[in-house]
């Protein structure tokens, strides 16, 4: 089945992609009625759309493994690890790229680190 047969406009939401990934992990390749079960776990998608999505995923993986897709060049593994831990910060208005400044500040606390440490409010005397 080609993309044209299913339709190019078949967009996947983040929730559908996550349900698809979970279903792939749940139902092994040799499971009977695998595609039917996966389609049942992914809301709003047909069995044909599930199969096509899987075929596209396999094509992407083959391209990556063949070296046809350049891998991102992270400056350090520490930066990417700290960025993953700051996911909630960026949602609250933190700036993107925060992990770069964090790895370069040394012992000095970054602004968002200070924001995270808020807890005890000042008294009125301290505020004055």
From TrEMBL:
Compositional bias annotation for Basic and acidic residues: 110-128
A Pfam family per the record: Myb_DNA-binding
CDD domains in the cross-refs: SANT (cd00167)
Annotated InterPro entries: Homeodomain-like_sf, SANT/Myb, SANT_dom
Domain Myb-like: 12-58
Cited SMART domains: SANT
Superkingdom of this protein's organism: Eukaryota
Residue ranges constituting the SANT domain according to the UniProt record: 12-62
Region annotation (Disordered) ranges: 68-128
Name this polypeptide is given: Myb-like domain-containing protein
């Amino acid at each position: 089945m080609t993309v044209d047969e299913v339709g190019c406009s078949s967009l996947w939401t983040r929730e559908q992609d996550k349900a698809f990934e979970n279903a792939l992990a749940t139902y092994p390749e040799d499971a009977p009625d695998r595609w039917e079960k996966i389609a049942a776990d992914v809301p709003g998608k047909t069995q044909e759309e599930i199969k096509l999505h899987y075929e596209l995923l396999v094509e992407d993986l083959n391209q990556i493994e063949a070296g046809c897709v350049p891998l991102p060049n992270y400056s350090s593994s520490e930066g990417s690890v700290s960025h993953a831990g700051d996911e909630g910060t960026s949602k609250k208005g933190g700036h993107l790229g925060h992990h770069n400044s964090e790895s370069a500040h040394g012992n000095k606390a970054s602004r968002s680190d200070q924001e995270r440490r808020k807890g005890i409010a000042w008294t009125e005397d301290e505020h004055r």
